[in-house]
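Newbie here. two chains, one complex. Structure please?
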Amino acid sequence: MPSLTVIVQLGLVVAVFVMLMLSSAVMVYAERKVAAFIQQREGPNRVGPKGLFQPFADVIKLMFKEELRPGGADTVLFLLAPVISATAAFAAFAVVPFGAATTFFGLLPEPIKLQVADVNVAVLVVFAITSMSVYGIVLAGWSSNSKYSLLGGLRSASQMISYELSYGLALASVLVIANSLSLTDIVNHQSGYWLGFIPKWFVVVQPVGFLIFMISGVAETNRAPFDFPEAEQELVAGYHTEYSSMAFAMFFLAEYINMVTVSAVATDLFLGGWHGPFLPESLGWIWFLVKISALLFFYIWMRWTLPRYRYDQLMQFGWKILLPLAVLNLLVTAAGVILLGA
Amino acid sequence: MGLELPVFYVFAAVAVAASALVIGQRSPIYSVMLLIVSFAALAGLYILLDAPFVAVIQIIIYAGAILVLFLFVVMLLNAPKEASGPRPRLAPGPRRAGVVLAAVFAGELVWAVWRTAMAHEPVTAGVPARAVESVHRIGQVLYTDYAFPFEVTSLLIIVAMVGAVVLAKRHV
């Protein structure tokens, strides 16, 4: 029955949208709590039990703030920039699978895939949409008509271009092994075990690739220690200095959703997606959540542990160390695949 | 199937309109943004042609990388809006050269469209029609039949890169 499929599909779209919104709320809370833990503080503890409703209080506060626009700002682009950022962040997750096909304990007549759109070039679609998100930041920086914003936007543009190359090459080395561009195929390629106990995750055969992917992922999402576009001490708040109210909230949302997307893609590519021991295939999404949460915790942990790099060091590292390493990794991987006939 | 034609016209109209607006803009930033819209519409056309790989590559390379560099340069130079009013006329020499180039380009365009319109079968340039669909086939064709143009292009890019470095080094 096509109508049921359509309804289920639409439901899936809405569910993923709501989940991403909620995930950013959880991330805001987690970030503040983990930061507090690392700095031996309490963290948010006034709104709701253990401060659990703090993110919602934050959103309500932002909604009621005045929308400011600097004089001389380019109105169209100033308003468009946060929209581009948030849209790109949401859109990228559409092709990410987060669980095996399931019937929800027999509720549905036929199994559906836990993925909004199954595109056979999914990996590249994620990459393409992520590469579009830089426009939000660059345009925000330019249209604000403020020197701090402009510097933040320019830094972001050069940073994202530099790290996108290594990001793409790390992706390519996985594609060479999996011999497919579909994320679902790549995840299914990682089921099973070597010698009975080592999971067949690509991180085992691609440790260098995983490292490169995560480092460039952090740089792509502008998180510490690579958060130059918004380096507070030098640039006030970088590209979103002049933004307030919900426009600011949209940049904030985009940043957290991008982190979730990078972690989800890393899980699919390197950590075996929804495959894991003890749980049946239909509950694989629990494994997926666990793996994503671990990566996201790592993100926060890193932010509150490592100081920010210096800008020229970031560029040097990207072009002179990370990129050659990524090329070498791809070459070795390709040679290995040919020699071993995998 | 019936949906394909209207979708084609929407993408085609967006691509043409955006491209026309690119030259019509006085602000370079808006030109770059409209060029992105035009490229996105082109990517839509590629998807209609059953070539999702080419479409995604179009977005990654052109919209995602090259135009970011364009935007970067425009912002870095802080290129001002062109002044309104009558545009300054070119000197007669460059104008003549421009007319000749435009005529040649127009002729080429007419010839290309004419050839396609006259063809009884889809123009495939010797590549099987389904080839664009699969990444494997694109790779194979690229490194066998089209190896020479491919290598020449990479040589050209290296020359351009070395040239850019030489030009930039002079001022450092």
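Moderator note: Chain A has a mean pLDDT of 80. Strands of chain A lie at 193-194, 198-199. Thread marked as resolved.
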